[in-house]
UniProtKB/TrEMBL annotation:
Localization (cell): Cell membrane
Family as reported in the entry's similarity comment: Belongs to the AzlC family.
Signal peptide residue numbers: none
GO cellular component: plasma membrane
Domain of life per record: Bacteria
Transmembrane feature ranges: 24-44, 51-71, 77-102, 139-162, 168-188, 200-225, 245-267, 279-312
Organism from which the protein derives: Bordetella pertussis CHLA-26
Protein name: Azaleucine resistance protein AzlC
Length: 314
């Protein structure tokens, strides 16, 4: 059953404002992670303006942290570009999944493409169907602009104030980095409908256990792009059908990415001292996402739970 439209065309700015409002949970999750990136950028030896411009023009969280790690390791630039491109290849699935909601104008689609991130995709995938068709382009633009502006603002705060925050609140940096996995988990829990539980749970398992195989899958998806984008493509037609079982592909893809973010944190050296707190924070986030129904509130509660458990030494 279709949801009641969440906004009407009205004034030109109304859909943009509605998109900004829908972006609040993403903003809550993005800001602390962007602050952490600003801090890490300075630690990697970059100038403040360079760090901020990376967030302005690259605007790809995981790739930005990979970029910093590559700079520290002295990786050749061609390899850095290749690695970042490979990491972002998952976006090849986002376009076809959202295509049925988007305006036909190539100019609008290119603008939306720049603003599209994992979390923007997840929010749009869950809510665009309830937006009036004439308003969808402006709605997702508002959603994307809110996320982009927050990412840039958080980076600037990390660059200019992060060192002082870390000095006065040493545990803050660790808590801030928890925001991204918490946001992923909250979005997965919100997007997972009863009929999607099996594919989504399967994606969580596969995403966490088969990280190496994911590279082969991404390579295949990249090669398959022409077929996926073809107007005669069976896959694209089925993705465009309202009742298709492939509608679970969006949440499943997000779940796989969430697992790929969370599992390395759990098994890595950084999480050894606070593994119990990390798991506890994830549990709080998941429960809050299902009970409260708001991913922003779930992230805040998850951060609070994680910080409290860390303070208790768990």
């Amino acid at each position: 059953m279709r949801s009641k439209p969440i906004d009407a065309p009205g004034t030109p700015g109304a859909p943009v404002s509605a998109g900004l409002k829908a972006c609040v949970p993403v903003m809550i999750g993005y800001f602390p992670v962007a602050v952490a990136f600003g801090i890490a950028g300075l630690a990697a030896g970059l100038q403040p303006l360079q760090v901020i411009l990376i967030s302005v023009f690259v605007y790809a969280g995981a790739s930005q942290f990979l970029l910093l790690a590559s700079i520290k390791a002295g990786t050749p630039w061609l390899w850095v570009v290749a690695l970042c491109s490979l990491l972002n290849a998952r976006h090849l699935l986002y376009g076809p999944l959202l295509a049925r909601f988007l305006p036909e104008s190539l100019r609008e689609r290119l603008r939306i493409a720049f603003l599209l991130t994992d979390e923007v995709f997840a929010t749009a995938f869950n809510r665009l169907g309830a937006v009036e068709p004439a308003s969808r382009g402006r709605w997702i633009t508002g959603l994307g602009l809110g996320a982009w502006a927050t990412w840039i603002a958080g980076t600037a705060v990390g660059v200019y104030a992060g060192e002082g925050l870390e000095r006065h609140y040493p545990v803050l940096s660790q808590v801030m980095r928890f925001a991204l996995p918490a946001l992923f988990l909250a979005l997965v829990c919100q997007s997972m409908q009863p009929g999607m539980r099996r594919p989504v749970l399967a994606a969580l398992v596969v995403g966490g256990a088969l990280a190496a195989a994911a590279m082969a899958v991404i390579t295949f998806l990249t090669r398959a792009l022409p077929f996926m984008l073809s107007t005669r493509s069976c896959l694209l037609r089925r993705l465009s059908e309202e009742g298709s079982a492939l509608a679970a592909l969006g949440p499943s893809l997000l779940a796989g990415i969430a697992a790929a973010v969370i599992v390395p944190d759990l098994v890595g050296a950084q999480a050894v001292d606070g593994r119990g707190a990390y798991i506890g924070g994830l549990v709080v986030t998941a429960v809050a996402a299902r009970l409260v129904g708001n991913s922003g509130a779930a992230v805040i509660l998850g951060l609070a739970g994680y910080g409290l458990l860390l303070a208790l030494g768990l």
